[in-house]
Amino acid sequence: MNVAIVGGGLAGAALAWRLSRRGVRVTVFTGGSSRWADATGASGGLVRGFEPDPAAAAAATESLAEFRRDPVLRSWAGYQELTSTYVLAPDDDTDRTEAAVRVVDGLLPGSARIRPAAGLPFRGLPAGALAVVERHAGYISPARLRSSLLTDAVEAGSELCHVPVTGARPDPAVVLAGGEVRRCDALVLAVGPWTPRLLDQWGLPGQRLRTKQIQYTLGRAAPPGLGAFVDDTSGLYGRPVSAGLFLLGLPSDRWQIDPADVAADPALARRVTIRAAERLGLGAWPGAGARTVASLDCYPAGRGGLRLRGAMPGCPVFTFTGGSGGAAKTALFAARRAAAELVGQSAARRGA
Ligand SMILES: Cc1cc2nc3c(=O)[nH]c(=O)nc-3n(C[C@H](O)[C@H](O)[C@H](O)COP(=O)(O)OP(=O)(O)OC[C@H]3O[C@@H](n4cnc5c(N)ncnc54)[C@H](O)[C@@H]3O)c2cc1C
């Protein structure tokens, strides 16, 4: 089996690595020199098991548990352990939260528990707010992990091609700048926030995928006693970065931005400053030398996150995207599932 993967972000790299470990011949088309200006390069790298949706918690916890048990992956990703605090929205469904915590507990026993948010270092939380506190969360460098996964895939026989891809054909094949056509047995478009634009340009069905801006600021602060956190009552999220620096962000409302047009939103950065003062008492945020990072991720219309989706009815052409702003934490699991699906579908086609 010979698989072409267009896109060398974390999604494409993790899938190439999984497939190469199964003995599949893979060519990764990285798109050339702009390949690092992507979601993977900008990612905040927060990894935790808990998500309010139990299915998303399963994908995130599987990935986190794999980092924790595999020292090689841990060092490739630069994994650092931190506690994670997830303050739940007041209207959160308690049964669903408990189910998600059980999922985390199944793979990382004793890591997650639900507790009153009172007593945690947040100000002005709604009365009775609850939080899920996880001992074994942390952060990784998605860009570093991507590089190591690609290097290992190449050592196992995969090929990297840096010539830009200008089209996808149902045979299946990729069309390279200059007109060269590369045939394959299955073609996967792992092009993250470029997916809606490329599906449109290449005459493929739209798949109800949209891009959304994600933005955070690196500022000078050290909120005492706070590791990684998400506060669903205000939208604020963050983590320590290195001595004296902290990452803080709020969800943006910028949808359907083209990757060529992404730019930091100053109004959103100001809202982070206001929330940082309200919730964390950080009156001097973000301080001297602050830097705001803005990029995009690809979101599916429904739930589902990063997964393989058929792009051309009846043809082995797929997208592998839908990170929804959180695929660094699910990529290992999602790539394992996608590799198994590709290998299984190929075996079924040969048997038919
Ligand atoms: C600012 C930000 C912060 C984030 N923080 C977190 C976090 O804290 N925790 C977490 O779990 N997740 C986080 N995420 C989400 C996570 O980083 C992304 O879901 C993940 O990196 C997406 O990877 P990808 O490979 O799908 O996309 P990308 O990394 O964008 O990769 C797509 C690749 O396709 C390439 N490409 C485009 N067109 C072509 C072409 N024609 N030919 C060949 N290649 C092409 C691009 O150059 C790019 O390299 C964050 C995302 C952003 C943007």
UniProtKB/TrEMBL annotation:
Alphabetical list of Pfam families matching this protein: DAO
InterPro entries, alphabetized: FAD-dep_OxRdtase, FAD/NAD-bd_sf
Domain FAD dependent oxidoreductase, first and last residues per copy: 3-339
Keyword Cytoplasm: no
Superkingdom in the source lineage: Bacteria
GO molecular function: oxidoreductase activity
Keywords in alphabetical order: Oxidoreductase
Cellular component GO terms held in the UniProt record: cytoplasm
Name used for this protein in its record: FAD dependent oxidoreductase domain-containing protein
Species, as recorded: Streptomyces dysideae
